[in-house]
Structures are given as C-alpha cells and as structure tokens.
Design a protein that fits this description.
alpha+beta; 443 residues; single chain
Length: 443
C-alpha cells in the first residue's frame, strides 16, 4: 500500500471507530461484538426488490450471487428480481432511474457513478459504519468514492475488478525476458521484442469501461493528473506530455485494431493467441482454466499476472474498475433494501461470492483479505489487494459530480488514444482534454 492510501486507510478506520463509539445510528452501534453482529433492518410488509447489476464476466460470479439472493428470500420472504446489463448500459439506465424517480431499488454500477446524483440515493451511513467496524474497515478508495464529504455514505462498496497485466509466460521468455518488467523502460523494451517475435501486446483504446483504465496508469506513472488536490484541471502539463510521448513509442507495438477495442475485445484476442500481453481482470485466466476446448484449457498453465510497472513517478499507480452498490431514495422498501445489502455483505455470503467469482472481484473491506479464494490458486493473489492499492479515477482531486462526469466521458482514455495513435499531436490531445475536463470542473 502506498503512503497516501495507508494514511487514508488509517484515518478512515479511526473515523469509523470514533463514529461507532459515539453511537451513530442509535443503540445498534454498541461496541460489543455481539451487538455489532446483531444489526438487522426489518423489511417492510409485502416488500419486493428489484436489483440492476452489471453482467458477469465470470459465470461463477452470477451463480454465487443468485444463490445468495435465493438464501435471502428464503430467510426473509422478500422476493428479489435481478436484472443484468452490460457496464455501458447500467450507467445510463441508472441515471434515468435517478432522474425520473422510478426503476430498480438497488443498482450495482461502476467507479464514482454514485456522485452523479448523490441526492437521489438513500443514506446508508448506519449500514456502512456497521460493516466497516465489523470487517476491518473500508479501504481508502472506497471511502473516497462513496463518502465524498467524509461523513455521509451514499452507497456501499462491492469491490473492484483488477486491471492487472495478463501475459503468456512462454512468449515473454521467448522475447528474452525471464520475468515481467517492473519499470516502464523494461515494459517498452518487452513490447518491442514481442512485436519482433510476432506475438504483440494489445490494450483497449476505445471507450471501454474497464479495460481503458490502463490509460490512467500511463498518465499517473509519469506524474500526470487530471486534477490537483484543489480540483483544478491540470491535465495539460509537462508530466502528461511525457506520458503521451512514452505512449507514442509503445503504441506501434500493439496489434492493429486496439483503437476500437471495448471490454470484450482483448479477452478474445488473448484467448485466440493473437496477443501475448494485455490488461484485464482474472476473467481471461478463469475462462481458460474452465474452457471445454482442450487447447484453451492448456493455455491456462501459461497465463500469469503482474502489476503494471512503476514509472518515473517512482510509486505504484494502480487503476481498477470499482463497483458500488446504490439504494435509490425513491424505493418503497428502504429497510428491505438495506437488509438485502447487509445480508449479501456478511461473511457467510460474501466469502461464497468471492470464491464463486474465482477472484474476479477484490474485496472492499480489509477482513476479506483472508478469504480462501486468494490462496486457493497462487495466480489469484495478484488481484487480492486491488482495492487496497487503487487510486480513484478522479485522482488527485475530491470526488463528486465533476469526477464522475469526466470519467463517464472517457476524457483520459480519449486523450491517450488520440495522442499515441497520431490522430492528434500530444499537445493537441492534452489541450482538448483540458477543455473537456474544465466543462465538468467549473471554477
């Protein structure tokens, strides 16, 4: 954990402990462990819930999730309907629901979408503080995303799909590298060697909700930022320029077509053997390991994971796809909705879900670092600390409507795509990104 995250984690944990000791939420926050484990919300009579969530990339995720949903209904009698949509479809549907005051009771969305309409969301501070105290504290980025004012929680963290390096070990070794490079100079050298061997790399440069997050790493690793701590837009900077110039050297070594890649494209290219390295969640490895095709199943032994290398800034700069859980304020059944989320986040259910997903989602609460999924396969461990180590997409500013809007508009991803592909000069791409971002971060 870098020092920024470590400090915020300690501050957040201390803050939650202090709030709990002051009795936030009433007597249910008594300090004894028994009292903590006893928190429940009594569902309203006749309650029915509708949940909108992103579609699975790993079948075990949705299987385990639905098993927990069934267990909740059997325990409470509350019927729960779950609808699954693609990441790109959840965001607009959630916005429509928030603005019209009708739709799903609970929405599982991405990054800081909750900050687009915080006044439309149910205050879940009591539940968030209960879970935080019981399960070791929420990681810093979770608090930044969902407790933007440092006080009220506008949603619960679900976790994150890690954007880690996924590579074919045999191909990396054939290119002359005994291990995956740990710095940006080695990263570039590897990609040049891979291209020369006919086994290039490839990274999404389209408006991919998850897989375009590598562009944050590219900018941050060289010291660039979308905004500074005061929320001043500073993307047009010498540091960002260095990142884009580095990207211009990297891009010619990519497989053709990455400018149009969305989230499924790199998975397909990797499993087809077209590329040797990309960034992704653990879903590529999961798909290979569980494939019915013997050739793809055999590939699993050759698939390894690594963090993105450290750039000139000298510290890790991880960007991962964060998942939130929002209860809409218009719900007729707020108690049932809170009880559903509490039930799903308790250890008996949450461990099963993490295990079912095969490590696709990393936990938002520190206690779940001990979930057996992370040690059941050595290749899972690379993903365990994604949420602990991640920077929020609006780094280094305060999250809110502006950061959510800028992220949803793919400003960083578009800037990188334009600059490194040559459709614009790096300076032109930065200037356009600066103007686009300033529309959200109005002074």
């Amino acid at each position: 954990m870098n020092e920024f995250n470590r400090r915020k984690f300690l501050e957040g944990s201390a803050g939650m402990a202090a709030a709990a000791s002051l009795g936030v939420g009433g007597a249910m926050f008594a300090t004894s462990a028994n009292a903590q484990s006893a928190l429940t919300f009594k569902p309203e009579k006749g309650a029915k819930l509708r949940v909108l969530r992103w579609s699975r990339f790993v079948q075990g995720d949705i299987d385990a999730y639905m098993a927990n949903v069934k267990a909740f209904t059997e325990k409470t009698g509350v019927e729960v309907r779950v609808d699954n949509e693609g990441w790109e479809d959840v965001r607009p549907k959630a916005a429509v629901a928030a603005n019209t005051g009708a739709g799903p009771d609970i929405i599982l969305s991405t990054n800081d979408d909750a900050n687009l309409y915080p006044d439309k969301l149910l205050d879940v501070t009591d539940l968030a503080e209960y879970l935080g105290k019981k399960y070791g504290g929420w990681y810093p980025a979770v608090q930044q995303y969902l407790r933007p004012d440092g006080k009220k929680w506008i949603g619960l963290g679900l976790g994150a799909a890690g954007s880690m390096i996924v590579y074919r070990k045999s191909m990396v070794e054939a290119a002359g590298f005994k291990e995956f490079p740990k710095d940006t100079a080695g990263f570039l050298a590897l990609h040049k060697a891979l291209k020369d061997k006919g086994t290039p790399g490839g990274y999404a440069l389209g408006n991919a909700t998850g897989d375009s997050l590598w562009t944050n790493w590219l900018m941050w690793s060289h010291g660039g930022q979308l905004v500074d701590k005061s929320n001043k837009v500073v993307i047009n900077s010498p540091e960002t320029l260095k990142a884009l110039e580095y990207g211009k050297q990297l891009y010619p070594n990519f497989i053709p077509g990455t400018l149009s890649w969305l989230d499924p494209n790199n998975n397909k290219a990797f499993l087809d053997g077209q590329i040797a390295v990309t960034n992704n969640g653990i879903s590529i490895y999961y798909a290979a390991k569980n494939s019915q095709d013997p050739k793809i199943k055999e590939m699993a032994a050759d698939i390894f994971h690594a963090p993105f290398p450290i750039g000139p800034v000298g510290v890790p700069t991880e960007s991962h796809l964060f998942f939130n859980q929002m209860v809409m304020k218009y719900t007729k059944y707020p108690n049932a909705a809170k009880e559903f989320l509490r039930f799903m986040m308790e250890r008996e259910q949450f461990d099963k879900w993490l295990i079912g997903g095969g490590g696709y989602v990393a936990q938002p609460l520190a206690a779940y670092e001990s979930c057996p999924i992370w040690t059941s396969d050595p290749k899972h461990m690379a993903y365990r600390d994604c949420v602990k180590n991640m920077r929020p997409t609006g780094y280094a500013g305060k999250l809110g409507y502006a950061s959510a809007g800028a992220g949803a508009d793919f400003i960083v991803a578009n800037m990188v795509a334009e600059a490194i592909s040559g459709s614009k000069t790096p300076q032109e791409a930065m200037e356009r990104a600066q103007k686009r971002a300033e529309r959200y971060y109005k002074v």
